[in-house]
Amino acid sequence: MIDRPVPSAPESERIVLGSMLLNPEIIPLISNLVEPSDFFESNYVAIYSAILRLVNQARPVDCGMIAQELKSVGKLDTIGGMTALAALMDNVLTVSNAEEHASIIKDYAVKRGLIASAAKIHASAYDESKTGEEIVGEAANQLVELSTSSARADALKPVSLVVSQGLKVLEERSVGNRYITGLSTGMEWLDLKTSGLQRGEFWMLAARPSRGKSIFCEQLCYHVASKGHPSLFFSLEMSQEMIADRLFARLGRVDLSRIRSGRLTEMEKYSIANLKNIVSKMPYYIDPTPGLNINQIRSRARMAKLRHGIEMIGIDYLLLIEGVRRHIRDSEESELRHTLQSLKNMARELNIPVLILNQLNKKDGDPEPVSNDIKGTGANEAEPDVILMLHRPGFEQVQEYQPEVSEAILILTKGRNVGLGRTKLQFYGRRVTLADPTVTTKRYVEPEVKSEAALEVQKILGEVEEVDALPS
Questions:
Q1: What is the spatial distance between Cα 235 and Cα 432, in angstroms, rounded to a whole number?
Q2: Are 464 and 472 in contact (CB under 8 A)?
Q3: Tell me: the pLDDT tens digits for 122-163?
Q4: How far apart, in whole angstroms, are the C-alpha atoms of residue 48 and residue 106?
Q5: What residues does CATH 1.10.860.10 cover in the chain?
Q6: Residue closest to 387 by CA, chosen among 436, 431, 420, 340
Q7: What distance in Å separates the CA atoms of residue 419 and residue 437, rounded to the nearest whole number?
Q8: CA nearest 209: which of 315, 360, 329?
Q9: What secondary structure does DSSP assign to 176-221, as a single string?
Q10: Which of 19-33, 261-275, 348-362 has the lowest mean pLDDT?
Q11: Which residues, including other chains, have CB under 8 Å from residue 318's CB and lie 6 or more apart?
Q12: Which DSSP string corresponds to 265-317?
């Protein structure tokens, strides 16, 4: 290891403390930017901690009161007594720069945090009791915590600012009838009900086996990415090859069975090969690793957020997360709830929407599902912000006759501040596609996408959609 001085800014630390002594009114501003642990000099940590204790006790802050507080914890002599406190004020020319110096303190604290994290990671790499995956997960957690702490902002907003920003958002929504305030789902009815996938929301889609829930999740992740917003699809059920075949069928408008058998016409081969031009610049990421547990999913999601700026995650599906099926079988609702809470916390921590798929209990006659049909109902109903169910009327007959298109019903059974209801979709089984019949390329309005790469992707997709209005 190279022996270098630890990053610190002692002069900024002195100026910030001296400024608070000269003008205690700036203490709330400084305390919202830095914590005691952000100071490097131990004496300054003690002084700043004493100042915060006085503020929390609603006591006046001056040299005398700080000296008494430090004396009560046996640290007054350690920091150099009253002389040291008075000297802090001598270094301050103006208190107007205190906020800038506080930002400098925070920046150096983050750098020291990175050094400490690197040391822990280095030590963990030699720990034979840990797997490489576990070490990567721990590293990702530490980096996310550092990035969160470095991005602290003033949590208190004056009502004038709240109203001003609210009016600006309202104006943006009204331009061009842009009712989507989150990420578009690609389904007009669902966007109207939910205003799109919102940051930090936890969604669940439940359906009986083979009803199309994987298709829904794949399409949603793909659609988000097609608009320039990076998405991640965890496939615990399908291999990379299966996902690729389904993507070829959906985008190339080719029968899936023909793709799997290799019986393709030259035109179909050309159409599929040409898809590379569409997806090459698309920020769509897939993790087809089977048997992941909840901690592995969270660590991989954090790493994807750091590396690729992921804005949406889909997981196929709940019962395939390692350990969950056993918990449901043994009626261990507390363990299932822990998994769902972990996914919900992941959505809030990364500030992105997360969609988890789940199964519905089988019933004779295949009636339209209700909330109690969701496996692990108690925990499953409590945690998600939005719950959807997918139903395929006449499923057995459809499986027997294999029509080109059949009916599917999407049911919105739970949502925060959204209207509930249902809508009909078109299910194209051979092309692995769920289509919203209300969506047309001319009428549908998407949120603005600013990146050049996203605009180019939209242009390519637009040329495809002119031929067929089925959603991508």
A1: 16
A2: yes
A3: 888 898 888 887 788 778 777 777 766 655 545 555 666 667
A4: 14
A5: 10-150
A6: 420
A7: 20
A8: 360
A9: GG----SB--S-HHHHHHHSSBPTT-EEEEEE-TTSSHHHHHHHHH
A10: 261-275
A11: 204, 324, 339, 340, 356, 357, 358, 359, 375, 376
A12: -HHHHHHHHTHHHHHTT--EEEE--TT--HHHHHHHHHHHHHHH---EEEEE-
Q: Range with the lowest mean pLDDT among 65-79, 226-240, 314-328, 430-444? A: 430-444
- On average, the pLDDT of the chain sits at 81
Give the pLDDT of residue 412. 93
Residue span(s) of the chain under CATH 3.40.50.300 come to 183-465
Strand 354-359: give its sheet, edge to edge.
284-287, 231-235, 312-316, 354-359, 202-207, 386-391, 406-414, 421-428, 433-435
* Separation of alpha carbons 3 and 276, rounded Å: 49
CA distance 26 to 28: 6
Q: Grade residue 344 by pLDDT with cuts at 50, 70 and 90.
A: very high
CB 325 within 8 A of CB 237: no
The tokens describing 278, both together, are 């569409």
The dihedral through the CA atoms of 64, 65, 68, 70 has a sign that is: negative
Q: For 220-278, what is the HEC assignment?
A: HHHHHHHCCCCEEEEECCCCHHHHHHHHHHHHHCCCHHHHHHCCCCHHHHHHHHCHHHH
Strand pairing class (284-287; 386-391) = unpaired
The answer to whether 85 touches 67, Cβ cutoff 8 Å, is: yes
Q: Residue 418: is its pLDDT beyond 80?
A: no
Q: At which residue do the structure tokens 């399908």 appear?
A: 238
Give dist(CA 216, CA 357) in Å, integer.
Answer: 9
Q: Quick one: pLDDT at residue 467?
A: 34
CATH H-level, domain 183-465: superfamily: P-loop containing nucleotide triphosphate hydrolases (3.40.50.300)
Neighbours of 389 (CB within 10 A): 26
CA distance linking residue 194 with residue 184, whole number of Å: 10
Q: Which of 92, 80, 85 is nearest to 65 (CA)?
A: 85
Count Cα atoms within 13 angstroms, Cβ side, for 428. Answer: 19
Distance CA 222, CA 230 (A): 9
Looking at domain 10-150, its CATH architecture is Orthogonal Bundle (1.10)
Pair 12, 105: CB distance under 8 Å? yes
Burial pattern 433-464, b for ≥16 Cβ within 10 A else e, equals bbbbeebeeeebebbeeeeeebeebbebbeeb
